[in-house]
Design goal:
single chain, two-stranded antiparallel ribbon, globular, alpha/beta, Spore Coat Polysaccharide Biosynthesis Protein SpsA, Chain A, eight-stranded mixed β-sheet, 12 helices, 2 domains
Length: about 375
Amino acid sequence: MRETGRLPAVAAVVPARNEAAVVGTAVASLLDQDYPASLHVILVDDHSDDGTAEVAKAAAAGSRRPDGLTVCRSPALPPGWAGKVWAMNTGLEALAEIAPEVAPDAAYVLFSDADIEHPPDGLRQLVARSESERLNLNSLMVRLHCETPAERATMPAFVYFFRMLYPFRWVNDPHRSVAAAAGGTMLVRRAALQRIGGLAAIRSELIDDCALATAIKAGKETGEGRTGEPHRIRLDLAGETRSLRGYGSASGVWRMIARSAYTQLRYSPMLLAGVVLAMTLVFIAPPVLALAADGPARWLAAAAWLLMAVSYVPALKYHGRSPLWAPALPLVAAFYLGATLDSARRHWVGRGGEWKGRVRAAEPNP
């Protein structure tokens, strides 16, 4: 993306809870950015007990911006706030206090997870595109960790199913209501945050990235010839930005899906039933019929299975996997469906929506 002129200052907010294993690499990748304007990183230590803050400070000391890190500790989680959103909000409040000294003209806030490694030119490209396209939110879905057998088998499907749920072309179209973002990398205009009332507007949201995208896109811009123009957002696949977070075994991947799948369905039993029916008909029934049926039904099912596999190939290639994994998509879909059902079960027994071992605090009684 060609730069359109002088790039503005940026402040990065990184919520971190027990991230000592990865936060050093993540913080260093931000402070080592090849970015020509001011860049300051605020790490919010959300009650870690593994030395997260110390690891981050050590990484900053060895970076090209040794004075570019501020570490603050998140206050106790108040009722009605999701843990990660509260940590993000703590970072914004810290930015407001230190801005006159370290980022007086920061036009953007980069929300980045503590397990994300950014390429040296990543921020420059994000800001240049946001400036040239007048984006209020510019987000990247990063390359997920695919090292263990379970991760290699299941993680590419996360991007595949996410894109089915939120087609990127629709997200990026200002005239469609579909909105989504990937929380690992979200560059947001500070003015857009102010217009929606800050992160308090999404304080209880467990899927904070898509909630923030929805809140920002729903607004209208006025003035300068843009009367009634929807707020512009963008979501793309990342180039080299990647997640350092490993989920290890199949049970780790299962827990990751189950944490928020039912939340994504707005806790609706009807939507859950619809997903079960759709996933069964689209992904599970074709291979079953192709192997068990006779006559035309077998060939139609085999054709559906083939088309399904072909559609999965881009997600596999994005994560460096062989297209030979594509025919196994029905098994992966069954795995995701099982985790989604488990997500509903967890919600019904009061254990839904955990983040880093913590359940959202309840709203106070009126």
